[in-house]
TrEMBL record:
Binds calcium (via the C2 domains) and translocates to sites of contact between the endoplasmic reticulum and the cell membrane in response to increased cytosolic calcium levels. Helps tether the endoplasmic reticulum to the cell membrane and promotes the formation of appositions between the endoplasmic reticulum and the cell membrane. Acts as an inhibitor of ADGRD1 G-protein-coupled receptor activity in absence of cytosolic calcium. Binds glycerophospholipids in a barrel-like domain and may play a role in cellular lipid transport. GO terms for cellular component: endoplasmic reticulum membrane; plasma membrane. Coiled coil: none annotated. Its main location: membrane. SMART domains: C2 (SM00239). It comes from the Eukaryota. This is Extended synaptotagmin-1. Residues 1-48, 934-964 are annotated as: Disordered.
Length: 1114
């Protein structure tokens, strides 16, 4: 076989001495030397050729001096020249190494059998697989077929790149409109298959092959962007790896095989020789970076868990499951310790031998974990646990590499590899494994977790996991695989969401999906310009407790700014489903009426089926709690003594009350303003300052009034400590110094004992003035049943000048943390915790130099919106930043027993746990002035009186959070749409006697009429008849493209009660006809005679919308 001229001069196994053999077997390089020398002779006349060669050589060397001359002419430092020279030498070195590697690999593949026979002394790595492994067969016949097909494959590639790829590149960017492939040649060196291994007995309906492939090609692909005179390309490539090919399912019809799936079990090795502008990628640093990026792209398609599936028959069943099959199992890897490691640290130029700072890398396929660093230790103890998904048995390996941590380059201490098939056979494998390439051993405990398709053993697994100490992550009880298939009828958005400069109009979205379970989020690809996308992707999640966790699905535009639909699915639903599987359409909320998502969700329980492990009995069954310590120790690592499961706060925790201070009005204040040098007496601009429990509040300023009315509410958390006083001071607001208008003190003893105080208080230290205060003690109640009424009352008595009233009190007790990350991987931090709810924060003390701090501190927070707010906690180190964080939605407490959670929480960074108690108390006012809401009203048949309404769009408190979410979505279901042909509007109308105001709250509409192709843009307009003018008109905001808008907006009219009873409230639901037109489309209206309703109740009701001039009924 012919060789290139360079092959004979490069060092290779052929040039090394070997045993005597037949002369015909001598390396071809020996015979080609005369040809090489003859080829190097000048082709023209002797003297002229030699002169031309000398001049050419001289010119090239002269060009090297040009950068030096330019640097001197421009006054640049010689460092620029040296840097450029170093860069060139590095590039030249990488380039030569790649060319040498290509030559050797080509020479080896050209005559594999002869070289294998002559160079048996070669390293084991260089031998083909069929030499090393007797069950790997040499498939030379297959290589001959590939060689025959190779030129035609090259023609196909040239056509594909020129007719498909090039136009796509040109259309992707205006700057690439002149992009073209100038040369596409796959070369004469075809892909070779060095060995084939067939795995028998895996499944009857599949054939499994492993192909050991090697491509050392002289491929040449050149591209050019003519506009910028830019040329680049590839000249030569190496790719080596094991490609697994699975033929399944086998069917009883032609072509017998239903589909072919292929993938690399491990990342293949890649080496590319660049040309043109891409020569820069051969610069040291960029070379490895570019190869890594290309390999990442290949891995995203062809390396486990990704597969390339080629269906061979139409309408193949379960294509998604063939593309992403369920894992074979889970391996729980306990990285326990190592011993006898080699010492790599040297001091005083190697005269003094130190130790090592070891850490370990654990790999299974593309799953990689890094342990913490143990300083100055040759026998480290890690005690860490990792869980990995196993897709293929046999084939995948558990690989552990141990390194010594150094400031520059980490030193290699050794590695071990173990086929996952051995773990499957053993069930539990606990052993010391020798490290190859170094000295020492590593201690691993490997547990094979089977995937069970029923929930029978879930309680057993959860009980076992509670007694297991695992870091950096808690042990998982189940795995969830989500097959995301497609969506239908997603809402079409207007172009204003993308760019304000675009003309308004409909635009197909570019939908993608975010799937989240707790703090783990996966994202699908984006499908462009469609409202019925098809994804066909699979996602996998580890579950710690499937009974309480939820899958949150957000369908978004690819900009992530626009939500096209949402879905929250409690995973407890799968526990009651057949084979823990849901395969169906799911209706999307906050989306179109017909928008839905098709998914297949498969849950599997992780069960350790081994005689070595004895699961503890489930509580409540005979023998529970009788498990001895020895049986515990045979499972995963367990702390001794066991850590506490619950907090132990002192007796005063959670006993706080909330004092609601209502500053109503004042009378007979003194006048402090003077004009014209005091000749003209003015009034005052009074405001109130309150001080209590270390906090201060300030009312608004009322201009020019000696009898001001503030009507503001302030809330403060108080304890039962005796002797507390509320300090009240009144001031006159001035440009320079505010004038004093009086003070008074209120002892809290009577308020805390009786619960209520409503008094006029005389102002002290001034000639006249008195202040009207109302104080109420709110005692938290651990029951969520009253939350709906509290939110309703707060919405009615809320004043426009005050902050939103609190509905609950959250008490938090932080006891301790464990397993916090070490500072710089070596030293323990000095941690403290910051607890935040809304804009209120509490910082604990700092505990010095420990990864397991004990704080024993508590804090309380006012909660205004329990369905929205969350508790945010950060653990920080003094001078080291954030060590971990925790986010706990307050809504989770609504579903907890007595509104309390008391347990260990895992920090979001995956390392560290926190023992915390959070309890919620509902604040019920007994003196709000609002009558208790009764559900005995008489509704019309169209108002669905049996429906458990959610007032004001706020969450209905039920016994559990999943029920809460289910009822919220249930209320919007089209199955419960009202009977009225034009829809309904939900209103609260109430007279606030304290403020002498008529209050109306527009909550929402439902089942509005759709006249055109697109849904309307509704808003609600209110008139207080008979005065149909701007003074009595109120209008809500406008909602885009919906038949079920949510407003929750409050409006007020100041008028006496007797006048309000003579009025009628006119309510119209309208929609903008178009952006350019002022015309409004009437969707429906109703009139409410205020004399016919009870204005003291403040109840939310649905009212039927009718045509013009008709009243609505409720």
């Amino acid at each position: 076989m012919e060789r290139s001229p360079g092959d004979g001069s490069s060092p290779s196994p052929v040039d090394q001495p070997s045993a005597p053999s037949d002369p015909s077997d001598q390396p071809p390089a020996v015979h080609t030397k005369p040809d090489l020398s003859s080829e190097n002779q000048p082709t023209g006349p002797g003297a002229a050729g030699e002169a031309l060669a000398v001049l050419t050589s001289f010119g090239r060397r002269l060009l090297v001096l040009v950068p030096v001359y330019l640097a001197g002419a421009m006054g640049l430092s010689v460092g620029f020249v040296l840097f450029g020279l170093a860069l060139y030498l590095g590039w030249r070195r990488v380039r030569d190494e790649k060319e040498r590697s290509l030559r050797v690999a080509r020479q080896l593949l050209d005559d594999e059998e002869r070289l294998t026979a002559k160079t048996l002394y070669m390293s084991h790595r260089e031998l083909p697989a069929w030499v090393s492994f007797p069950d790997v067969e040499k498939a030379e016949w297959l290589n001959k077929i590939v060689a025959q097909v190779w030129p035609f494959l090259g023609q196909y590639m040239e056509k594909l790149l020129a007719e498909t790829v090039a136009p796509a590149v040109r259309g992707s960017n205006p700057h690439l409109q002149t992009f073209t492939f100038t040369r596409v040649e796959l070369g004469e060196k075809p892909l070779r298959i060095l060995g084939v291994k067939v795995h028998p007995g895996q499944k009857k309906e599949q054939i499994l092959l492993d192909l050991n492939i090697s491509y050392v090609g002289d491929v040449q692909i050149d591209v050019e962007v003519k506009k910028y005179f830019c040329k680049a390309g590839v000249k030569g490539m190496q790719l080596h790896g094991v490609l697994r090919v699975i033929l399944e399912p086998l069917i009883g019809d032609i072509p017998i095989v239903g589909a072919v799936s292929m993938f690399f079990i491990r990342r293949p090795t890649l080496d590319i020789n660049w040309t043109g502008m891409t020569n820069l990628l051969d610069i040291p640093g960029l070379s490895s970076l570019s190869d890594t990026m290309i390999m990442d792209s290949i891995a995203a398609i062809l390396v486990l868990p990704n597969r390339l599936l080629v269906p061979l028959v139409p309408d193949l069943h379960d294509v998604a499951q063939l593309r992403s099959p369920l894992p074979r199992g889970i391996i729980r890897i306990h990285l326990l310790a190592a011993r006898g490691l080699s010492s790599k640290d040297k001091y005083v130029k190697g005269l003094i031998e130190g130790k090592s700072d070891p850490y370990a890398l654990v790999r299974v396929g593309t799953q990689t974990f890094c342990s913490r660093v143990i300083d100055e230790e040759l026998n480290p103890q890690w005690g860490e646990t990792y869980e990995v998904i196993v897709h293929e048995v046999p084939g995948q390996e558990v690989e552990v590499e141990v390194f010594d941590k150094d400031p520059d380059k980490d030193d290699f201490l050794g590695r071990m590899k173990l086929d996952v098939g051995k773990v499957l056979q053993a069930g539990v494998l606990d052993d010391w494994f020798p490290l190859q390439g170094g000295q020492g051993q590593v201690h691993l405990r490997l547990e094979w977790l089977s995937l069970l398709p029923d929930a029978e053993k879930l309680e057993q697994v959860l009980q076992w996991n509670r007694g297991v100490s695992s870091r950096p992550e808690p042990p998982s009880a189940a795995i969830l695989v989500v097959y995301l298939d497609r969506a239908q009828d997603l809402p079409i958005v207007t172009s204003e969401f993308y760019s304000p400069q675009l003309k308004k109009g409909n635009k197909e979205p570019n939908p993608m999906v975010q799937l989240s379970i707790q703090d783990v989020t996966r994202e699908s690809k984006a499908v462009y310009s469609t409202n019925s996308p098809v994804w066909e992707e699979a996602f996998r999640f580890f579950l710690q407790d499937p009974q309480s966790q939820e899958l949150d699905v957000q369908v978004k535009d690819d900009s992530r700014a626009l939500t096209l639909g949402a879905l929250t699915l409690p995973l407890a639903r799968l526990l009651t489903a057949s084979e823990l599987t849901l395969d169906q359409w799911f209706q999307l909320s906050s989306s179109g009426t017909n928008s839905r998502l098709y998914m297949k969700l498969v849950m599997r329980i992780l069960y350790l089926d081994s005689s070595e492990v004895h699961f503890p009995a489930v509580p409540g069954t005979p023998g529970a709690g009788d498990l001895d310590r020895e049986s515990l120790m045979t499972g995963s690592s367990v702390d001794a003594p066991p850590r506490p499961c619950h907090t132990t706060p002192d007796s005063h925790f959670g006993t706080e009350n909330v004092l609601r201070i209502h500053v109503l009005e004042a009378q007979d204040l003194i006048a402090k303003d003077r004009f014209l040098g005091g000749l003209v007496k003015g009034k005052s601009d009074p405001y109130v300052k309150l001080k209590l429990a270390g906090r201060s509040f300030r009312s608004r300023v009322v201009r020019e009034d000696l009898n001001p009315r503030w009507n503001e509410v302030f809330e403060v958390i108080v304890t039962s400590i005796p002797g507390q006083e509320l300090m009240v001071e009144v001031f006159d607001k001035d440009l320079d110094k505010d004038d004093f208008l009086g003070r008074c003190k209120v002892s809290l003893t009577a308020v805390l004992n009786t619960g209520f105080l409503d008094e006029w208080l005389t102002l002290e230290d001034v000639p006249s003035g008195r202040l009207h205060l109302r104080l109420e003690r709110l005692t938290p109640r651990p029951s969520a049943a009253e939350l709906e009424e509290v939110l309703r009352v707060n919405s009615l008595i809320q004043t426009q000048k005050s902050a939103e009233l609190a509905a609950a009190l959250l008490s938090v007790y932080v006891e301790r943390a464990e397993d916090l990350p070490l500072r710089k991987g070596t030293k323990p931090p000095s941690p403290y915790a910051v607890i935040t709810v809304g804009d209120t924060s509490h910082k604990t003390k700092t505990v010095s130099q420990t990864a397991a701090p004990t704080w024993d501190e508590s804090a309380s927070f006012l909660i205004r919106k329990p369905n929205i707010e969350s508790l945010e906690l950060q653990v920080r180190g003094e001078g080291t930043g954030t060590l971990g964080s925790l986010s706990l939605p307050v809504s989770e407490l609504l579903g907890a027993d007595r509104l309390c959670l008391d347990r260990w929480f895992t920090l979001n960074n995956g390392q560290g746990q926190l023992l915390l108690r959070a309890q919620l108390g509902i604040l019920v006012s007994q003196h709000s002035g609002v009558e208790a809401h009764s559900h005995s009203h008489s509704y019309s048949s169209s108002s669905l009186s049996e429906e458990p309404e959610l007032w004001g769009g706020l969450p209905q408190t039920t016994s559990s959070a999943p029920e809460l979410r289910q009822r919220l979505t249930h209320g919007d279901s089209p199955l419960e749409a009202p009977a009225g042909p034009l829809g309904q509007v939900k209103l609260t109308v109430w007279y606030y006697s304290e403020e002498r105001k008529l209050v109306s709250i527009v909550h929402s509409c439902r089942a509005l009429r759709q006249n055109g192709r697109d849904p309307p843009d509704p808003y609600v307009s209110l008139w207080l008849l008979p005065d149909k003018n701007r003074g009595t008109k109120r209008k809500t905001s406008q909602k885009k493209r919906t038949l079920n808008p949510e407003f929750n907006e409050r409006f007020e009219w100041e008028l006496p009660l007797d006048e309000a009873l003579r009025r009628k409230l006119d309510v119209s639901v309208k929609s903008n006809s178009s952006f350019m037109s002022r015309e409004r489309e009437l969707l429906g209206k109703m009139q409410l005679d205020l004399a016919e309703i009870d204005l003291s109740q403040g109840a939310a009701q649905w009212y039927d919308l009718t045509v013009d001039r008709d009243k609505g009924s409720s």
